[in-house]
Amino acid sequence: MPSDPEVIQLIIADEHSGFRQQIRRSLESGRRFRVVGEASDAGGIARLIRLLKPDVVLLDLALLRRCEPGTLDGPVGRTCVVRSVVVVTAVEKEQVMEAFRFGAHGIVSRTSAARELPRIVRSVMAGDYWLGRETVPILVDVVREFLSRGNGIVSITDHGLTPRELAITAKIACGRSNKEVGQEFRISERTVKQHLTNVFAKVGVSSRLELAMFAVNHHLVS
After folding, report:
1. Is the full-model pTM beyond 0.90?
2. Any idea what DSSP says for residue 80?
3. Which domains does the chain have, with CATH numbers?
4. Which of 130, 87, 122, 71 is nearest to 105 (CA)?
């Protein structure tokens, strides 16, 4: 029987069966989610992804470290990606950045996973990144570190961005508002918004947070 396209299918990967059961209960309390498999080791994750073709994989960072490269890329030939939500023991800089380096679409702490997951899964399925309030300051700090190393100068050769668009990207990545950017460059907020619209279209992002992550991951900072 074909699966209901409105139902989000998930795999839960964690070494602790009690945690997996807690997450399953939380997700399946809503009609839109269905847990189609569970894994307790890295090898099981790859096997279940190939077999079950889930929409989302929820997995512990410790297990993700032991996965083979490309495990979360999904089956060859599949048109949509397998989105991943990574569970961390603490929302700290090292764990957050490690999760994003592995390609996480969302990050959640172990203590808040059961409560937050339904909303997180809906968000990543909509094409967004989920950071959570406690994660945003960490990401901003990391971007600022990159900018300070390069004196705030970004490359003007990549992704088809103009020098002005790159300069605005640098400011947005530091957490500046449209109003602050406009004041600094002596342009209107409307003009800043138009520049951002162009940047979003060129680099394929849909939010300011995604743009900040893009700037870091694609080494726009010198």
Report:
1. no
2. S
3. 8-132 (3.40.50.2300), 137-217 (3.40.50.2300)
4. 130
